[in-house]
Amino acid sequence: MKKITEIKQVQPTELGQKKLRVAAYCRVSTDSDAQLESLDIQKSHYEEFIACHDDWELAGIYYDEGITGTKKDKRPALRRLIKDCENHLIDYVITKSLSRFSRNTTDCLELVRKLKTLNISIFFERENLNTCSMEDELILSILSSMAEGESASTSENSKWSIQKRFQNGTFKLSYPPYGYDWNGEEVVVNPKQAEIVKMIFAEYLSGTGVYTIAQHLNEKGIKTKKNGRWQPSTVKGILTNEKYTGDVIFQKTYTDGQFNRHINYGEKDRYFCEAHHEAIISHEDFDAVAQLIDQHSREKGIVKGSEKYLHRYALSGKIICGECGGKFKRRIHTGRDSKYIAWTCGTHIEDKTACSMLYIRNDDIERAFLTMMNKLIFGRKLILQPLLEQMKSYSDDSGVVRQRELETEIMKISEQRQTLQRLMAQGYLDQIIFTEQKNELMTQTRAIQREIDALQGAGGTYSHQLLEVQKLLRFTERTAMLQEFSEDLFTDYANRVIVYSRHELGFELKCGLTLRERID
Fold this sequence. Notes:
Layout: E1 20-27, H1 33-51, E2 56-64, H2 76-86, E3 92-95, H3 98-101, H4 105-117, E4 121-124, E5 129-130, H5 138-168, E6 180-182, E7 187-189, H6 191-205, H7 210-219, H8 232-239, E8 248-250, E9 253-255, E10 261-263, E11 271-273, H9 283-299, H10 307-310, E12 319-321, E13 328-334, E14 339-345, H11 346-350, E15 360-361, H12 362-378, H13 380-393, H14 398-425, H15 431-478, H16 487-493, E16 494-501, E17 504-509, E18 514-518
Parallel strand pairs: 1-2, 1-3, 3-4, 12-16
Antiparallel strand pairs: 4-5, 6-7, 8-11, 9-10, 13-14, 14-15, 16-17, 17-18
């Protein structure tokens, strides 16, 4: 007779049921002591909150210190949280409130949707809102819009307060430039750094260039304000900063309605405050440096703020390293019998272990571009003509049709909003229902408008490339084989050069083509 042994049922807890991996996100918008203390309290709260649930385990506490909530791209901890979610290291996310998570409606909805596609829910404690139980995004959209409106209101109040302090001269530079410190009440000279500033001005007045000055500082092991390496642009920034004379120009930059920072070229009022703090450099030396910088610019035909100011040569800023993505810098190399121009990857210059790409001779790049253009001239009927025909045949892009459909939808939604407004005015519609319906229609309108903007952007790029193909084809039809490199020709038809190796380049043309060329 067969022997039968009964195996008892094992309860889920005995099987070692997998726990839910829960992560918490915290943020404070300033790095003041009070705010950082608040951050510590939040972190402790979530450690205890997660520990209270037997079926939860802590997957991590992600926090951003002293960072605005209006831009998700500026919050490294939030980006790391999303990355860990994508790598399936987290099952559930909790945070204090919508305003802590994001004050930007678009960003908030985008992040929620992204996590929902990964089957990860977010729980907002203050609003008692769990994204997994939502039938639609209307409530989230309304609450997030309120958070964004609160942020905009706070920003406007802050701007008004700052503006008043600009006008009466009481604005405090809590983060002064290199050479100064903030003692909690005013800007004071940092003696050690001040000597470096004086040395920079003295060297420039004696004829030393900004690149050489930066090199000397790095060789001596001197660090910048942020404990980094000196760059020519860093030295130039010190030489042109009026704060070293003791004076201050307020509102040299400003923030727009989308919380983006811009240089103030006259769009906003600026305020000059004389003798704001102790000077490191005399006005005479500062003015002499300004005149010297201006003289160097005039000698090279460079107007400050112009494109040529940033790119003095046709290839400046347009040669990209195929290994690290860095930009190549122009150098003068000395050979056995002569000097020659070469281009070297900026990353390789700073750290040879970070990028192994070696230099490329300027004449090799020019010859490769000349060869590539001559191939286009010779083979225009095999390359450019078919490309043009293909692009023309696609000119009735379905995107145009889709754009018209979307514009029609917006018109219909606009009519619905007008109907709601009339019903509300006539007393046929409850205020709560009116608000809900109106916000839902506004959300739909914003989503449609974003799609229209994307289609218009893609269509604009496509139309531009079509014109560039026609322009290049006309040039190749009317031009004989080229004999020498022309900077104007490169500027007219090429966007940039990609260095794949010392023996192969890629020319990215404005018409959308990227053509490779060998270097012998």
